[in-house]
Amino acid sequence: MNRFWKGIILPLFNTIKPEVIVEVGSFKGENTKNILSSYCSIYDAKLISIDPNPHKDFDLEYFNNEFGDNFKFFNSMSLDVLPNLIDYNAILIDGDHNWYTVFNELKTIEKNFNQDSFPFIILHDVSWPYARRDLYYDPDVIPMEFRHPYMKLAMFPGVEKLGKIGLNENLNNAIHENTPKNGVLTAIEDFIEDTSLDLAFYSINVFYGLGIICQNTEKNRRMILELFYESDMAGVLENIYLKDRFNKENVIKNNKSKIKSLNNSYDNLNNDFSILLDINKDLKSQLNDLEKNIDNLENNRDELENKVSELNSSLNSQNSLVKNLNKRIAEKDKDLAGLNDV
Ligand SMILES: C[S@@+](CC[C@H](N)C(=O)[O-])C[C@H]1O[C@@H](n2cnc3c(N)ncnc32)[C@H](O)[C@@H]1O
């Protein structure tokens, strides 16, 4: 809804000058801030915002302090608050995007409106993906008979089946689309068909679709079609498309140069690797030679040890021979001394 503020919603408000505005679905409060600062504070108009579970960035204190009596917030669901609101000139519906909620929001507005002026109803998500498919922020609050089977899976344009790639994969999306009582646009069409009031519905099919329901007068028809035309949404979209295209082209260019430098590094690494392979080969052959040398040295050592032990044993036998000889010499010396005495 935020994307339509400058191009469509503010110009509409500046033309119809609503004194009281209702906002269903505040989320981060971006549009809340737009309405308060660019419209309500200029025309002293009031804004009533409703959201049972606004985003953590929604700064209620700031809104209360900054805009005082011009702002009132209901931390509740639209269907609990709308029955008590009677006198407003414009309402923005961007809350729970399912048939049951939107149809009953519209029926409540119809029931409560002041006979003199039917409020301008501005609705978001009247095109793909929620035109013909329900979303449930809180499935438990939707009566069973109106709740379609749903899953937390993504939606892809032109594909009925939910899947892993696409939009809003973290939300409870109805598994089937294009069935009765399913989706925001279906709720609007069913409401227009059901009402006895003379109402018209206009829509613009960009940014998930913006629709306006108002009294079916020539003045309203001209004003809204002019707003749609002058908002130049096609131009806004083209701008986004071009920025996105150039961003992507830049990313591709950057990625190409990264790939080139990675390829260079890869070649360098390959060179280094082949040098290392050669060194490794060399070292292996040196190691081989060293191992052979060690084997030889070990063999030599064994031989030398054998020889030493052989020499030791021969030395031992020589020693005992010398000992024997010494003993015999001593005996002979003794014998000789005896003979000399005789
Ligand atoms: C798509 S966001 C609204 C975006 C906002 N309007 C903007 O333009 O930035 C939908 C919001 O609707 C709120 N929501 C869900 N169910 C709701 C209900 N039954 N009544 C009111 N708000 C509801 C969600 O909590 C969420 O913050």
Could you give a short description of this structure?
β1 (about 20-25), α2 and β2 form a beta-alpha-beta unit.
Describe the fold and architecture:
Strand 8 and strand 9 (159-163) form a beta hairpin. The longest helix is centred in the C-terminal third of the chain and has 109 residues, at 233-341. This protein has two domains: 2-231, Rossmann fold (3-Layer(aba) Sandwich), CATH 3.40.50; 235-342. Helix content is 54%, strand content 15%. The protein has eight helices and twelve strands. The model has no long low-confidence stretch (mean pLDDT 95). The protein is of the alpha/beta class and 342 residues long. The protein has helices at 5-16, 30-43, 60-67, 78-81, 99-112, 184-194, 218-230, 233-341, and strands at residues 20-24, 46-50, 71-74, 90-93, 120-124, 135-136, 150-152, 154-156, 159-163, 172-174, 199-204, 210-215. The strands form three sheets. Strands 3-2-1-4-5-12-11 form a seven-stranded mixed sheet. A three-stranded antiparallel sheet has the order 6-10-7, with no helix packed on it. Strands 8-9 form a two-stranded antiparallel sheet. Bound molecules: S-adenosylmethionine (SAM). S-adenosylmethionine binds next to helix 2.
